[in-house]
Amino acid sequence: MKNSGEAWPPEGTEPVAAHPDAPGPGTKLGVHFSECFGCGDEQDGGLHMESTVGDGLTVKSQFTVTEAHQGAPGLAHGGLLACAFDEALGSVAGNLLRLPAVTGRLETDFRRPVPVGSTLFITATLDGMDGRKIYVSAEGRLDAEDGPVAVRARALFVTVEFDHFTTHGDPNAWKKMRDSNRVNP
Ligand SMILES: CCCCC/C=C\C/C=C\C/C=C\C/C=C\CCCC(=O)SCCNC(=O)CCNC(=O)[C@H](O)C(C)(C)COP(=O)(O)OP(=O)(O)OC[C@H]1O[C@@H](n2cnc3c(N)ncnc32)[C@H](O)[C@@H]1OP(=O)(O)O
């Protein structure tokens, strides 16, 4: 993946269409795995992000910063903001393409402080694919859809076989996610 100053998406990236069975604009995506740190509802310390499919190849997510997310006093920790963007970017890749994929590389540009109590309105866009490589980008605006941009991010996701998760992860947790019918791999 190219560095921040270089062309995005990189040369060789092809435009993509959403999968025919992908959820349409306006669909609330809910929780893909109850224990996910980004969106899970059984993860007390998590980010509890909520996402909805947007127009075009986008997903819109919201992340409200609490005192549990601080780095500097009163301000969101940059690593947690990166986590929020990983979730939003993974959501646009996974839900619109309906392909299992993992983050290979994630870049974040922090442009404004994000205070405790504020909500980031994140729009993530599916920029294209090159073989197994999925390119996605996002921006997060402070406290409103048209608020000032606080964070920009872009990422490379790489498609994997489903056994990536059972081989390297926890097969029982995978079964729990599958049985919840929240995703349908
Ligand atoms: C997580 C959800 C699972 C559920 C899936 C089901 C349904 C989906 C529906 C909804 C999902 C909704 C939301 C998801 C929300 C959040 C997502 C969170 C995602 C994560 O939290 S995920 C954890 C962190 N993530 C990892 O744990 C990855 C560890 N890693 C590896 O597992 C390997 O590293 C892997 C597999 C990445 C590649 O390994 P590999 O051996 O398969 O393939 P290879 O190395 O050949 O790479 C192939 C091509 O990608 C290029 N490439 C690779 N990495 C690159 C890099 N960093 N920079 C530049 N280029 C790179 C190569 O250069 C080559 O390019 P080329 O084809 O041109 O040669």
Describe the structure.
With 185 residues, this protein is of the alpha+beta class. The chain is 19% helix and 29% strand. The protein has a domain at 50-176: Hotdog Thioesterase (Thiol Ester Dehydrase, Chain A), CATH 3.10.129. The model has no long low-confidence stretch (mean pLDDT 94). It binds ligand 3IX. Ligand 3IX binds at residues 1, 32, 38, 86-87, 90-91, 94-95, 100, 102-105, 131-133, 156, 158, 160, 183, 185.
Could you outline the blueprint of secondary structure elements for this entry?
Elements: E1 50-53, E2 58-64, H1 78-97, E3 101-110, E4 119-130, E5 133-142, E6 149-159, H2 163-168, H3 171-179
Antiparallel strand pairs: 1-2, 2-4, 3-6, 4-5, 5-6
The site of ligand 3IX has 22 residues, from α1, β3 and β6.
InterPro entries: HotDog_dom_sf, THEM4/THEM5_acyl-CoA_thioest, Thioestr_dom
Subcellular location: Cell projection, Ruffle membrane; Cytoplasm; Membrane
Family: Belongs to the THEM4/THEM5 thioesterase family.
Largest sheet: 6 strands, antiparallel
For the secondary structure, the number of strands is: 6
Q: Provide the CATH architecture of the domain at 50-176.
A: Roll
The name CATH uses for the topology of the domain at 50-176 is Thiol Ester Dehydrase, Chain A
What is the molecular shape? globular
Helix count from the secondary structure assignment: 3
CATH superfamily of the domain at 50-176: Hotdog Thioesterase
Radius of gyration: 16 Å
Helix/strand/pairing category: alpha+beta
**Low-pLDDT residue spans:** none
Mean pLDDT: 94
Q: What proportion strand?
A: 25-35%
Strand order in the largest sheet? 1-2-4-5-6-3
The end-to-end span amounts to 27 Å
What ions, cofactors and ligands are bound?
Answer: ligand 3IX
